Amino acid sequence: MVPFNNHVGVRITQLTAHDAVAEVADRPEFLNHLGTVHAGALFLAAEVACAGAFSGALAARLGDVRFFALRSSRAAYLKPARGRIRATGTVDGPTIAGVLTRGSEERFDLTGVARLYDDSGLLVVKVDLEYVCMIGAPA
User: Do residues 53 and 19 lie in contact, with contact meaning Cβ atoms separated by under 8 Å?
Assistant: First the structure.
């Protein structure tokens, strides 16, 4: 759905109603000057994973979404990221449940959390994201 994500090559590899996983491949163009995965690629994977989680959680009303936009974020880069990176994203379940039950037109805030791991399972990055969303009344 987002052309930039396809251009860069960050891909969603798993999508459920509760979470999503996005991957950054182990490719030289994703590296920084230190030979580790660039912070920009890591952040994009986190954002793609949370956007995927949003899509999975709101699948029943995805056609009613008017917009879903990142408002702010906070990233903690914990360890050097090497190799393939997997980002697991989730969004706030109670907020989504409320939106799905009401079925009305509304603007709402939504939080997302992404955790990024290398191939050995080491947690390398934590990202907290805040979104603003608008959903229209069902047709």
Answer: yes
